[in-house]
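BUG: 3D viewer hangs when loading the predicted structure for this chain

Environment: internal workstation, default settings.
Expected: structure renders.
Actual: progress bar stalls at 90%.

Input used:
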Amino acid sequence: MTSALLIKDIRTRAVLVPLRRPVIAGIGRFELWPLVLVDLETTGGIIGHSYVAPYRAAAIPVVVAALRDLHDMLKGTPVAPFDAFESAAKALNVVGLAGMSMIAASAVDMAIWDTLAKAANQPLVRFLGGTPGPVRSYDSNGLWRDEVSTLAAEARELQREGGFSAMKLRLGNEHLKDDVAAINAVREGVGRDIDLMVDFNQALGLGDAIRRCHELDETGLYWFEEPIAYDNTRGYAQLAAKVRTPLQMGENFYGPRDFFANLNAGAVHYAMADLMRIGGVTGWLRAASIAAATGVQLSNHLYPEISAHLLRVTPTAHWLEWVDWANPILEEPLQPREGRVHAPDRPGIGISWNEKAVAKYAVKV
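Structure tokens produced before the viewer hung:
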């Protein structure tokens, strides 16, 4: 059946959904989160779903324009993710494969894989040769760069919500003492036994990062995520050789080649991939092979609904980053249990839209 499927239509819609806790980082404060929804319709009547989150609402029209370009190119072609991915790469190469080009290609790729798994009447994880089951997860739904006085109570709330034994705190304050105070506040709230990852969101220069990370090496953190600009590969390699706490990065890698270049340079101890940037399911599978070949443990960045499937077939699977940011427009949102997220045992990725919510939060594109 799958060999007969052709792409009939690729429809896009956009929403701005409310966040339960605002995202507060160096790039700004966000109360609302933009999502571009993709519905890929086939000649067999099967519809594949996916979404991407371009961070800024102003980026929505650009993502939608790139998706419409891909629609015109892919309409009438077979539902074949590897072929579609290569076709998109060739077509968009003239304007650059990173940025919006890769985001659009990733969105289509995820919808295609959803379609194929639905056509096979299997959850994506089974379609890829794995089994549904729990994935070790950490809570990333809060602990942003807010007032230190709020962090202990917020950490307790996060722990109660999903039974997590790991969570992520955002650092990168102007002064070291403020970062230390934030760490201490979280541990006051949930104790010292919790695995605490920290994300600097690229807030530091290389010299400051070496000093800051040396000081924080004594605090027992699980990883240092993106202390410096993500594209400073040489700087990460230098930093990786100087700190004891493992470095984590990868959410800003665009495509498997970018992923390989950084791992090959010894720039990280742990890696993560963002489905919107790495190339969707196709890009993830290729990146996972690179991670396995280099022995680097791989986590996801955002998109837990899809990542729960992919981490189950990733040789060096590490952690799932849990966020519920897409929940307001999902018909059956995932619910973590005892610090684990389970890939849903239903055909495809397992996402469908709550159409009333989509209409409520819709923005014109």
